[in-house]
Amino acid sequence: MSLIHLLCWLLSARLSLQEIINIAKPGCPTKCGNLTVPYPFGIGSNCSMNPWFYIDCDTSVDPPNMLVSSRNEFRLIDISESQIRIKNHFLTSLCGNRSMNFTLDFSETPYTFSDVNRLTHVGCSDLAVLEGLSHRYVAPNLTLNNFAGGCVSLCSDDDQFHGGSCPGNGCCQIPVPKGAVFLKSFISSLEDRWGNVKSKPCSYSFIVEKDNFTFEAVSGLSEGAVVLDWRIGTENCSQARNSSNFGCHGNSVCIDADAVVGGYSCSCLKGYQGNPYLPPGCSDIDECINNPCHSTAMCVNNQGNFTCECRRGYSGDGWRNSTGCFRTALSMQYRGWTFYKPSERVLAGFSAGTLTAVFLSLFSGLTNFVIRKVRKRNLKNRRRKFFKQNGGLLLQQQASVQDGQSIPGNTRIFTAKELEKATDRFNESRILGQGGQGTVYKGMLPDGQIVAIKKSQLVDEHKSKYLVEQFINEVVILSQINHRNVVKLLGCCLEEEVPHLVYEFVPNGTLFDHIHDDNNGPEFPFSWNNCLKIAADVAGALAYLHSAASLPILHRDIKSSNILLDEKYAAKVSDFGISKSIAIGQTHITTRANGTFGYMDPEYFQSSQFTEKSDVYSFGVVLVELLTGLKPIIPSTSEEDAKGLASHFWSSMNEDNLDSILDARIVAEGEKEGVVAVAKLAKRCLNLNGKERPNMKEVAIELENVRMAQMGSTVDTRLQEDSEILSKGNYDYGWTSTRDFGTRSASASDIHPITFDTI
What is its EC number (predicted)? Predict the structure, then answer.
């Protein structure tokens, strides 16, 4: 091998590190139990490509349950590149005169039934029927076709079925067409037509994978799996490549899902590995790690492939399982001695080990020097790129920004090195919390100040421009605010791949945790006076944002999880990621629905027009949380579906049944007049007609009046009269959303941002 080749090999061996293969989005779990969950699927909020790929991992049982798109009946078993398998418990049964049918509906989702499924019927003298709808893709449209099929199951007179394969005695099957999105099954008995035969008491039909099913007893009929094909969108590759949200990233290939149903999937190119749905895409496989070359050859890794090069004095293809490398006529051995042509006698004096040692010592210092220089230059270029990418130039338009200097509002620009040191290189032990916007770490600055550092979430490239604008928006908005009940922004960092925000540290967590976490117990002084103070603090902060800031600011995501509590349990409003400044005199902004389900103003949801009264509605939900101790989404029970807390509270007020939903601690500690006054105020805030709601300034004043009354002052008579007048209104609060995929039975579902807001 030439000297140049050896040098290149040494450099590449030192400089190349095996990249960590991305499985899930950064900051998101990769496993639920023993099952790996790769993106575009994701566990938790904002970890999947869209709501249909959301996986709810229930770790309260062992092994954990995995629900697809939060639907209780779809329990996930396995995920592959193009299919998922869900547990089969969809049964049609016929027991005497009693029958039970099933329907499965995957229309308007990225899932279709695979043609490896069969409707399998087990019983005697039955007609099993399968009806449904299937997709058919004729560019550029996706249409639905009807289909139907049936089969008859028979049992021999001498031998009713005792198990075995299907089809067979007492078992028949109906193919499920590829692209089916809706299935309905029912059973019709044929005993009346064919006379009485020996039969089982009950007959059953169910969907199951064709080659993965045998039966022995009725109790084991539903243990198989249902196979669903999944895809991205409905466009084929040629159409999707022209769209801004194309899902395939670097070193990957787009594959048309199927001519029947449309859509596409992504796969890494040969010689690459990783997740093609996550930026930057697939990474090169270093085949040389397992050295497929002959012992006398050197493996050279290239992008997407590798080569085997025979050493000097050898020829051949270099492969271990092929011709390998063999000696050429340049040299031969005799009794341990090697004889060369005269021109090579000088080199013959050195053994291969000696040459390697010389080369290593000669270039070790050089390679170390090159590595340091390359890394330093790359780091500098990388940080300059990220500074520009994360909006540094936009901030410079606001003011002259240099290292260590400030932008308006005394907001400091931190370096990446400072934040790495403050968080011990973003150690997992420093994590305070994780959410849809990113991960929050606890850090300590060189002067000893404790801070909270929010590391934004890494997202797809086509969203980067929008997120930079959102980041700049939050920095500029928080730079204008100076209020004791609004969390203070200390600075930001633009030198990393995702922007970082540095806030004052608020030690006692969120109001949501203290209201709904039973483990807090006596540590949180949940007295009526404290609840009033927290409500008054938040109302005062919102009144300031709406009326006293230099430009009115609409928060747009008021909820108890965005209200932090300091060491004295004073409230601080946080998370201004989707907040908006509006011009003085401007009444609303028009935007796609964006917020948190359970807190969102139904008027805004329907009209897409957000006003200051939309913040008032969200604050009303927080008031009701304080009064009742209930979550914004009340979980479903066996008697009724999940429902919104606002709707439940409104109904209780109209039925003069407030006592039934009040928190026991409020009933025990609060004065009845004050509790009723706050409840009536909350009802006014939750009025479906935004114009009938009070503004935040009025809310703040009324809450302060109630606080004064609790301390012995006289309740403001005008407040009481207004509340009594408004309480006589008869409003129908029955708003629900049907845009979500099913209803989720709750744990932390009430604080998950709604997912139908796309960019």
Answer: 2.7.11.1
Q: Cα torsion at 119, 125, 131, 136 (round to 10°)?
A: 50
| Cα distances (Å, whole numbers) of residue 499 to 64, 169, 477, 606 | 35, 66, 16, 33
Q: Is the pLDDT of residue 115 over 80?
A: yes
Distances (CA, A) of 670 to 509, 516, 526, 626, 629: 24, 19, 11, 12, 14
CA distance 43 to 37: 7
Lowest mean pLDDT among 211-220, 249-258, 570-579: 211-220
Question: Phi/psi at 495 (nearest 5 deg)?
Answer: -95, 0
Q: Please provide residue 464's backbone torsions phi and psi, each rounded to the nearest 5 degrees.
A: -65, -40
Q: Is the domain of 550 the same as that of 670? A: yes
Q: Which range of residues forms the domain containing residue 164?
A: 80-230
Rounded Cα–Cα distance for residues 696 and 703 (Å): 10
pTM of the model: 0.47
What CATH number does the domain containing 673 carry?
1.10.510.10
Residues 517 and 433 in one domain: no
Beta strands in 422-542 (DSSP E): 431-434, 438-444, 450-456, 489-493, 500-504
Q: What is the CA radius of gyration of the chain?
A: 33
Determine whether 557 is an active site residue: yes
Catalytic residue among 126, 557, 575, 663: 557
399 & 469 share domain: yes
Contact 695, 613 (CB under 8 A): yes
